Amino acid sequence: xxxxxxxxxxxxxxxxxxxxxxxxxxxxxxxxxxxxxxxxxxxxxxxxxxxxxxxxxxxxxxxxxxxxxxxxxxxxxxxxxxxxxxxxxxxxxxxxxxxxxxxxxxxxxxxxxxxxxxxxxxxxxxxxxxxxxxxxxxxxxxxxxxxxxxxxxxxxxxxxxxxxxxxxxxxxxxxxxxxxxxxxxxxxxxxxxxxxxxxxxxxxxxxxxxxxxxxxxxxxxxxxxxxxxxxxxxxxxxxxxxxxxxxxxxxxxxxxxxxxxxxxxxxxxxxxxxxxxxxxxxxxxxxxxxxxxxxxxx
Length: 298
Description:
Layout: E1 8-14, E2 30-36, H1 41-49, E3 53-56, H2 61-76, E4 85-87, E5 93-94, H3 98-111, E6 116-121, E7 137-142, E8 151-153, H4 154-167, H5 177-189, E9 195-205, H6 213-221, H7 223-229, E10 236-241, H8 259-292
Parallel strand pairs: 1-2, 1-4, 2-3, 6-9
Antiparallel strand pairs: 4-8, 5-9, 6-8, 7-9, 7-10
Helix pairs in contact: 4-5
């Protein structure tokens, strides 16, 4: 593995129960930024002492990240390309090997020339089967990294992830934004994006998925991204077994538009609109009934 590394950045939107302190810290190769969304001044002070920069805002993770990045990109003209990688873990992620494991993660990504990647999940709190650790694999290639803990090479972060976050400014949950980020990054890269789950450096997701009911209801409301990517699930594309040489994957062309898929999406959107219209009709009928009240008795 190559040891020629630049400085990387970790951004965590952290609450009072965040476990990020168990795994992540600032060091000579890594800056740690915290967006604290709690209200406890003591917790804020503790987080600030262990980070490079800290902000205090309330909201959903991707609203917080978007607002901060807009402030930095459009206000301070901050250049994220000064970093090699940008890592965006949820605040319920534990990397058992700590910062040494994180640097190993970056080293594997560097050796394979990856544009985006993530640690494998070693327990059962997962959303996509493709994120689970594969025994005997060093890495396995996937279509895109999950929003739970993606790592982006800085060009893909700016031209892919940031562009998608800016474009879909209604998305507070980030649900399915990964697919859009990957497609946008491909325009900058001029080839298919190289994404992988790193099985050799697994992480533990400490909270079950779906426990934040409000967030998952919001995700269902963000229907455009669901429409755009509902039939493009995260998939495993290839495996690199432990012991294989780390050789950058060859350049490949992104998949072209599929007319059948486009037609399917149009039908899906059409039926969604019909169901939405039907829901409105039922609502107004119910409203009329409530306003008019029961018929007068004879």
